[in-house]
């Protein structure tokens, strides 16, 4: 498999992006320490894929528009398509995915999806801009899926790591069933007000999905003054996932999520789908900032 990499950096942070899927491939601090997972297939080959044009799984692996049915794999096709670099310099880069005959066979819409990456100081800003380039309404979801090292490379023990939400997230928690469809789940004992304590048992039943976020960001770390500030001002949903024993935890800002168990509607009825009018744009931002540098 060809790996085409674009690198950007500041004195405090460096990143590389794979044109396949516009995936954040590496993220390192000034000392060269990795902050995201390296894609070792022992646990998971992903690093920070983007999810488009759906997030999560579809009921029966397909969606309907009128009388037509189309199959899409979990999280869509964006992470498996080659993006075209349209701008790059030492501290920022933009990559684009547009519809083609192959995408239209499973998603019969015209679109342009730009992924912009910019480093300033100790912060990486990622901006996804989706444009409806066609003459018909466009249904879409979008998600980020970065896998951060657990433990982070600052010396704290794995067992000491936690997520601190900006606000207490008190809404219902959902989890995927055996088919990847969402079902309501009890609130885990690990979630105490604003704090989610990380432990392998938390992920024994798969990802945690929060569908009604109150806040727009969180801090991930171990309370030692070092960590990562993750912001998501435009996405109303969040997935948190790992595999028991895996050295990473995914913090995933989403617009949309998997079909609820029992869902039988058309794509327009799918929870979290946005409808873009012809020529309309929608932007989803994510920030990753080093804390304690």
Textual characterization of the structure:
The protein is an all-beta fold and 293 residues long. The protein has one domain (5-291): Beta-galactosidase, Chain A, domain 5 (Distorted Sandwich). It contains 1 helix and 25 strands. It has a 10-stranded antiparallel beta sheet with strand order 7-8-9-10-25-21-20-14-18-17, with no helix packed on it. Strands 4, 12, 13, 15, 16, 19, 22 and 23 form an 8-stranded antiparallel beta sheet that branches. A 3-stranded antiparallel beta sheet has the order 1-2-3, with no helix packed on it. It is globular, with a radius of gyration of 18 Å. The relative contact order is 0.19. The model has no long low-confidence stretch (mean pLDDT 96).
CATH topology: Beta-galactosidase, Chain A, domain 5
Structural class: mainly beta
Ends apart, CA distance between termini: 36 Å
Q: Biggest sheet, strands in spatial order? A: 7-8-9-10-25-21-20-14-18-17
Helix content: under 10%
Q: Can you tell me the number of structural domains?
A: 1
The second-level CATH architecture is Distorted Sandwich
Mean pLDDT: 96
Q: Largest beta sheet, briefly? A: 10 strands, antiparallel
**Overall body shape:** globular
Q: How many helices does DSSP assign?
A: 1
Topology, number of strands: 25
> Percent of residues in beta strands?
35-45%
